[in-house]
UniProtKB/TrEMBL annotation, chains A, B:
Listed NCBIfam families: PRK09194.1, proS_fam_II
GO cellular component, one term: cytosol
SUPFAM superfamilies: Class II aaRS ABD-related, Class II aaRS and biotin synthetases, YbaK/ProRS associated domain
CDD domains in the cross-refs: ProRS-INS, ProRS_anticodon_short, ProRS_core_prok
EC number(s) reported in the record: 6.1.1.15
Function (record text): Catalyzes the attachment of proline to tRNA(Pro) in a two-step reaction: proline is first activated by ATP to form Pro-AMP and then transferred to the acceptor end of tRNA(Pro). As ProRS can inadvertently accommodate and process non-cognate amino acids such as alanine and cysteine, to avoid such errors it has two additional distinct editing activities against alanine. One activity is designated as 'pretransfer' editing and involves the tRNA(Pro)-independent hydrolysis of activated Ala-AMP.
Family according to the record: Belongs to the class-II aminoacyl-tRNA synthetase family. ProS type 1 subfamily.
Protein origin, superkingdom: Bacteria
Keywords: Aminoacyl-tRNA synthetase, ATP-binding, Cytoplasm, Ligase, Nucleotide-binding, Protein biosynthesis
UniProt protein name: Proline--tRNA ligase
One biological process term in Gene Ontology: prolyl-tRNA aminoacylation
Organism of derivation: Paenibacillus xylanivorans
Catalytic reactions of this protein: tRNA(Pro) + L-proline + ATP = L-prolyl-tRNA(Pro) + AMP + diphosphate
Free-text note regarding domains: Consists of three domains: the N-terminal catalytic domain, the editing domain and the C-terminal anticodon-binding domain.
């Protein structure tokens, strides 16, 4: 490909919108452009990367025995009402009406469509199991789109759906997808962790894992244990797999983590509650500064609406409530932080000075709060707190559960060693859905014995455009992104210093042909630009190999640079003959024809 | 691929929605399913066909030097307002609002997005020319979606946009695209005609051609001349190319076609108008029956609103008004048939008995009416017509033009021989847009001399899903679609009569491996079904070659059938050895590895 014929609008400066390193380079190297918040155009180089990622995903899906389909973007609202998600999905679901005022959703995911398909077309165990997948555009009206392709409103995704006769069959598919996802991420050159996760909006009755590409810009906190290899996302960390740690009565096992609160403090106040005047002290930080004690000695009281009912949740001052865990403990369908409207009916609640003592609301107590001995908390009275509070004595422990997020240094739920936090980008997610959708939408089949059963489903998503963004983040360097050869828009950048020089041009064309014949893709910078401009652009574009054809062309000499050499600490280009350059390319990576 | 693992829900009967032969077979062979009116899911076999068509399109675009991009589906309404199309496109444009109530269009086409891109990124002649293309999902809210994939509301299209410094550069790209489109249609195995066309909603200042796949179900009428090869769509037929036949004054050259009206009839009435009582006779057909004369002797008067003003258009009784031609003659922006509201202000107009004599409206007269001598027309009085009407004498010929559609038997505008009508499916369309969009949206570049110029654009669309549907129409047979090898979901169907029979299974697997090694794709019917079911499904699926492995397996004998043999009149399968079968496949078509 001739660079002069290609639209590659490189930029000297990144636009103001760029809020992550990889994103800045994607913009500066002319690979993508923003059309509207969270909505991007892929320009020729960017499109080639995306196609490479798509190809890898497709090959691995096919290898895993999945069948490719293409399901509509526009989905009738009726289907989403059947599953109950038309309301549940909230404002993130893009909605529109057609000319007959019929309502549609723009698919953020395709469980409804695919379950309806199975309901209509699959009626016997003999047609099971199977897995369908598609690669296509998805829509999600993010409240706050950011980091370019990482959190967009229109994005490319591979989604897959499996249908099985029973859980055992599902397990096999789940394992196959697990392997496929690992292979995809490895082929994309990504450093990643597979973590236990929570099912979120998709819902599900079984196991679920996320594949996290490590990156500082990642919006997910990954909790890992260096000792035993345990890994989970923050929502899930500390809870046993498959949602089994919280039983139906809402009673969770009490955490084995020893509390760090001061247990042996036999101070003057003894066991008696002490009222403290705390004028204007409303936050944990303010309280901590005011009384000169650590936040871990305080009890934080938060009010939620659980299915419309007001409840209080207690966690330690240094902990945060995990909504998902709280929701499970309460067995609630919907859980939101109580807003002003909800509080309006309760004039006695003194926000800023809330506490469990004398509070006339259902209370859920975090396990770490339950074992505190001399805690400080609000007195439900303006400008007053209590110290020397003892849970179980000063307020009842009727509903104790693990309702907080893990914190760094917590004990690993598997081996007890200290947990460590890292940041990750969720690039893939696999779920055992079970019969949630088949039940809701009435999909069924006859088993071997003629009994009507609901197919056991799984669903598997991988963000194709997000993979591209994650690679950009991990491979962002000082001068641009150093694209891995598997996804790079071209393998080799040929850079003649002067395209008008006949010897340089000849040698460039010879090299191009030899490389193409060997199965490599080649970009030739044939532009009439100064060498400095060409080098700068070449670094921005970041192909795995650069070959500069300059004055040495007369003697068949070129300058060779590559990511591999750079990784070996060789920052400069190396002089060699054109033939050696071709050999170098072949040694550095092989491509399939 | 094992058929037992694949979702191929064949049907014994076509669903009621199926309104075209190819569409019926696509449904019956389990390749597509309707999700909502004009919105389809592609099941595994259908998806493979679509991917094959996509591959052909992509290869030809790349060969023509185009660069692939991916532009957003969601497009800010502001862009469409800049081009003026947000209103103009009408209800066919799907619209939605995001969570911030910002308006978006779902792209039916991408002129706005791509012109905005060029406006931002291309500022010098040195970056021109270039052509961008994409393959993706488009939306058009058709009033009446039908014929399955032929006229859908969500469909797959390849659209391309070229930017040039001047018209000459555009000409070269236009020719390259013309060649690419011809190659695509040939590789898809389609019988097609390239016709002169009208620019329609996209608008444009220059040449435009459509590529029509011939099919009875086609919604377009193609006008051709067997003698000289002239071909145009009906809207365009008889008008010279590039809109030059109608000059700015609205005066078109008078058609050279001789009128077939009776010119020499010196009957009793002579030149005097005759009033005829015609009680309740309102249509041309009724009038023709009533007076016993051909429709070609009558003048039909139609009322239009041209930019809000009421005008009358006169054509012969056997002709139809061509709205686009009338619009051009009037120089009108908007033209619609006058509705009741428009007529409410003109109580004297007696619909059903309209005629030019004494009509107090601007009148446009078709050239064929202008040369009539003894015509019959309405008298603008209920239940009365005039006969013996002579245009020019009985009413003025102030505005004469060619405002009717061509009719079969008309003289060819190039050679004068008789025109013939056929039906076609518009699968491709290439336009010279000129500077319509660059002007409207303020895209410009500096030319060699530092002058600011508007890039001269072209746009080029080919319906990818529509190509699939057109192939289905042309290759629909008695038992299914006989897919051409270039797009067939698999090349060879291996049909063991009994998968449980070890010899049959062994031979099948051997054949499969040999064919795969030779670069062919293979579908193996390993299902536990009766041979009759397998044969029926095999015909529905319609792969180019079927090899039946039955009792002869023990002796290495198989039965070989193929589209090629069928086309040679050989309807039965031929017995041969498995090795001969492999050789036959290789002789019938080659594939690229």
């Amino acid at each position: 490909m001739r660079q002069s014929e290609m639209l590659v609008p490189t930029l000297r400066e990144a636009p103001a919108e760029a809020d992550a390193a990889g994103h800045r380079w994607l913009l500066r190297s002319g690979m993508i452009r923003q059309l509207a918040a969270g909505i991007y155009s892929y320009l020729p180089l960017g499109r080639r990367i995306l196609l490479n990622v798509e190809r890898i995903v497709r090959e691995e899906m096919d290898r895993a025995g999945c069948q490719e389909v293409l399901l509509p973007i526009m989905q009738p609202a009726e289907l989403w009402e059947e599953s109950g998600r038309y309301t549940q999905y909230g404002p993130e679901l893009m909605r529109l009406k057609d000319r007959h005022a019929r309502e549609f959703a723009l698919g953020p995911t395709h469980e409804e469509v695919v379950t309806a398909l199975a309901r209509d077309e699959v009626n016997s165990y003999r047609k099971l199991p199977f897995t369908l997948y598609q690669i296509g555009t998805k829509f999600r009206d993010e409240r706050r789109p950011r980091f370019g392709l990482l959190r967009g409103r229109e994005f490319i995704m591979k989604d897959a759906y499996s249908f099985a006769s029973d859980w055992e069959e599902l397990d096999r598919t789940y394992q196959a997808m697990n392997t496929a996802y690992s292979r995809i991420l490895e082929r994309c050159g990504l450093e990643y962790i597979r973590v236990e996760a929570d099912a979120g909006t998709i819902g599900g009755q079984g196991e679920t894992h996320e594949f996290m590409a490590l990156a500082d810009v990642g919006e997910d906190t990954i909790v890992t244990c260096k000792h035993c290899g345990y890994a989970a996302n923050l929502e899930k960390a500390g809870y046993e797999t498959s949602g089994s740690s919280v039983n139906n009565s809402g009673q969770a096992e009490v955490s084995a983590v020893p509390t760090t609160a001061d247990k042996a403090d036999g101070n003057a106040e003894g066991d008696t509650l002490v009222r403290i005047q705390t004028p204007g002290v409303r936050t944990i930080n303010e309280l901590s500064a005011f009384v000169g004690e650590d936040a871990q000695n305080m009890i934080k009281t938060l009010l939620y609406q659980a299915d419309g009912q007001l409840v209080a949740a207690l966690v330690r001052g240094d902990h945060e409530v995990n909504d998902i865990a709280l929701k499970q403990v309460l067995g609630a369908e919907e859980l939101i932080l109580a807003d002003e409207t909800a509080l309006a009916g309760h004039p006695k609640l003194t926000v800023g000075f809330l506490g469990p003592i004398g509070l006339d609301l259902p209370i859920v107590v975090d396990a770490d709060v339950a074992v505190m001995e001399h805690a400080i908390t609000g007195a439900n009275e303006v400008d007053v707190h209590y110290s020397n509070v003892r849970p179980g004595k000063d307020f009842a422990l009727d509903n104790v559960g693990r309702i907080r997020f893990a914190a760094e240094g917590d004990g690993c739920p598997t081996c007890g060693e200290s947990l460590v936090f890292t940041k990750g980008i969720e690039v893939g997610h696999i779920f055992k859905l079970g019969t949630k959708y088949s039940d809701a939408m009435g999909a069924s089949f006859l088993d071997r014995n003629g009994r009507q059963c609901a197919p056991v489903m799984g669903c598997y998503g991988i963000g194709v455009s997000r993979l591209m963004a994650a690679i950009a983040e991990q491979y962002a360097g000082e001068e641009g992104i150093r694209w891995p050869a598997t996804v790079a828009p071209y393998h080799v950048h040929l850079i003649p210093m002067s395209w008008k020089d006949e010897q340089q041009r000849e040698l460039t064309l010879q090299l191009e042909q030899q490389l193409i014949d060997a199965g490599y893709s080649v970009l030739v910078d044939d532009r009439d630009e100064r060498p400095g401009v060409k080098f700068k652009d070449s670094e921005l574009i970041g192909l795995p190999v650069q070959v500069v054809i300059g004055r040495g062309a007369a003697e068949g000499q070129v300058e060779f640079g590559s990511h591999v050499l750079a990784a070996q600490g060789e920052s400069k280009r190396i002089s060699m003959t054109a033939q050696e350059a071709v050999i170098q390319v072949k040694e550095q990576f092989t491509v399939r024809n």
